[in-house]
Amino acid sequence: GKHDLSSDDSVEEILFEAAERSKRYLSDVFQVNELNKYMECKTFESVQCNETSNMVYTFKPLGSAVVGLRKFNESFQLCMTDVIFEGGMASCNAIVMGAILGCHTGYKMLPKKWIDGLSQMHKDWLNSKLNCLLNIMGLP
């Protein structure tokens, strides 16, 4: 692709490009300012995941994913655990961040003990979804 994801500069370039493209779909200045605020987050604390007056907020999972990408040099498991321990709507924040980090890292970097810990029913469900995606992409 266009960017080398192993470089911190490339991650920042991708985040900048994603923010710029996203702004086209936002309807007012307040939304653009909120997008900018969460795209600039560098720590989970700055996302304020457990802010009680604003816990269920679309931009918080985005901010969590942005922080996860910025600090990924640690580990997938550590990033996921950190965002969950921040509290708030931890499941939403972890789902969005996990999806983005999973795309960034690939299957091989996911914690083996987490994958092995899935029940057979969940493994079957996940494999069927992955096979549907591969079929859509025209991959064997």
Automatic annotation (TrEMBL):
Transmembrane segments: none annotated. It comes from the Eukaryota. Pfam families: ADP_ribosyl_GH (PF03747). Coiled coil: none annotated. PANTHER family: ADP-RIBOSYLGLYCOHYDROLASE. This is Uncharacterized protein. It comes from Paramuricea clavata. The lineage of its organism: Eukaryota, Metazoa, Cnidaria, Anthozoa, Octocorallia.
